[in-house]
């Protein structure tokens, strides 16, 4: 697959010596949705701002569509749309004028047909003449996306696009993102909502202390690092795990057994466990399995990674 964004050995050090990004390497594939996860101060917003040319890197290189983000800034920036965390819109301006003005900033000729298509895709067409101040928070976020799409970018960065948005509207935004991908737009989003990444991303990137810990296909990541647990509901709850079951990775929860096993191994041990239950006089009533969530995998990845302090002024995410 073609790489639309290539980040090579990117470093950002602020005055005073604080290093927000450390030798970041990242390739983003054309047409994919990449979710970038990381704790507060990890460097997510700094990375996006640097790729988009808002923040100047200390060293390293960013190529967007083959254009260097420094030496060929205008061509690179024209390929990128950015939806920031903060809602910073002119409150007394209309939706249409706001989007039309953003298109003009990139030197694009007027194209009312295209702008209508963008607004309709974001369910904003009936609000085109409404002033920004009259819109809900969710609608204002949609206007931010419309502004970012106004100049027809090939890459769209969404920095915490559903922050502060209720669950129902968040799912609507997921549908918007899916539609943008269907239209050929490459999407990179940062998010605090793990279920958001789990629901819509093709690949997952994890960043901590300014370093990329991994970038991997979402399904492959969950298969490789995920564990399954088997809850064994007994006919009679027990107080302690019998000695005869001591070789198994068992926990006792509310008088019932929970067995954790690795999905990658050839043998899960379940057959032997069920046989040994009977040998130890336990009668099974029901079985339930569950897969580790992406959130659990994320927590396990960043737990041992040192956290940055809040000195990362450019990264409030």
From TrEMBL:
This chain's source organism reads: Pseudooctadecabacter jejudonensis
Name of the protein in question? Cobalt import ATP-binding protein CbiO
At the top level, the lineage of the source is: Bacteria
Q: What is its EC number?
A: 3.6.3.-
**Group of enzyme by EC:** hydrolase
- Which keywords annotate this record? ATP-binding, Hydrolase, Nucleotide-binding, Transport
* Annotated GO MF terms: ATP binding; ATP hydrolysis activity
Q: Which gene encodes it?
A: cbiO
The family database entries (Pfam families) matched by this protein are listed as: ABC_tran
Q: Matching InterPro entries, A to Z?
A: AAA+_ATPase, ABC_transporter-like_ATP-bd, ABC_transporter-like_CS, ABC_transporter_ATP-binding, P-loop_NTPase
- ABC transporter domain: from which residue to which, for each copy? 5-234
